[in-house]
Design goal:
Distance between the termini: 72 Å
CATH architecture of the largest domain: Orthogonal Bundle
Order of helices and strands: HHHHHHHH
Shape: elongated
Number of domains: 2
Number of strands: 0
Strand content: under 5%
CATH class of the largest domain: Mainly Alpha
Helix content: over 70%
Structural class: mainly alpha
CATH superfamily of the largest domain: RNA polymerase sigma factor, region 2, helix turn helix motif
Radius of gyration: 23 Å
Length: 177
């Protein structure tokens, strides 16, 4: 069955069309998602979300501009990248909020974090607080601070690395005592 027939089947028999769509394109879509994601649950979610998104917005696909396989894998790649970034952001937020070493109490860890944040430049500190404490996106931060998007993105990455180094130094100092 060619792509046009498959699209017509989606209109007349959505369940049958989706089943056929998933059987024909499920593996390339899964592969595209698995290139970016490690967790099988995330890959499964991404594949499901790709097909659901395609069905809801199938009128956007133009067979004259490319193949359905390429279209679906592009959707899967974008969704996988977005999912990977969400996972990464969540991991970083957890690292900033959860104490890693059991001997320290929560207030000691929080104090270390705020001391280390205080060692950063004020603009870098603002970026990290807006990003990981308030949960704002890079775009929102760039608008709020009146800075270029790329500038906020890079400064945030550098500030986070510096903060991690400062926290490691504090932990090493605490272990040596």
């Amino acid at each position: 069955m060619d792509e046009r027939q498959l699209l017509e089947l989606l209109e007349t028999d959505p369940e049958g069309g989706m089943a056929l769509l998933q059987s024909q394109y499920g593996e390339p879509v899964r592969y595209a998602a698995a290139q970016r994601l490690d967790c099988t649950e995330d890959v499964r979610f991404c594949v499901h979300d790709t097909f659901a998104d395609f069905y809801l917005h199938r009128e956007r696909f133009d067979p004259e501009k490319g193949s359905l396989r390429a279209y679906l894998t592009a959707i899967a790649e974008r969704k996988a990248i977005r999912r990977w970034r969400e996972n990464r952001r969540r991991q970083m937020a957890e690292q900033l909020s959860v104490p890693e070493s059991p001997p320290l109490t929560a207030w000691e860890t929080r104090d270390e974090l705020y001391d280390s944040l205080g060692a950063l430049r004020e603009s870098d500190r603002k970026i990290l607080l807006l990003r990981y404490i308030e949960g704002r996106s890079v775009r929102e931060i760039s608008d709020a601070l009146g800075l270029n998007y790329e500038c906020v993105k890079k400064r945030g990455q550098r500030a986070l690395k510096k903060l991690q180094r400062l926290l490691e130094e504090k932990r090493r100092e605490g272990e040596e005592k």
